[in-house]
Amino acid sequence: MKYLIVGLGNIGTEYENTRHNIGFMILDAIAKASNVVFADKRYGFVAGLRLKNKQLILLKPSTYVNLSGNAVRYWLQKEKIPVENLLVVVDDLALPFGSLRLKTKGSDAGHNGLKHIQDTLGTQEYNRLRFGIGNDFLQGTQINYVLGEFSQEEEKQISEHIDKAIEMIKSFCLAGANTTMNLFNKK
Question: Which of 24, 86, 113, 116 is a Cys-bridge partner for 65, taking CB atoms 3.0 to 4.6 Å apart?
Answer without folding.
Answer: 113
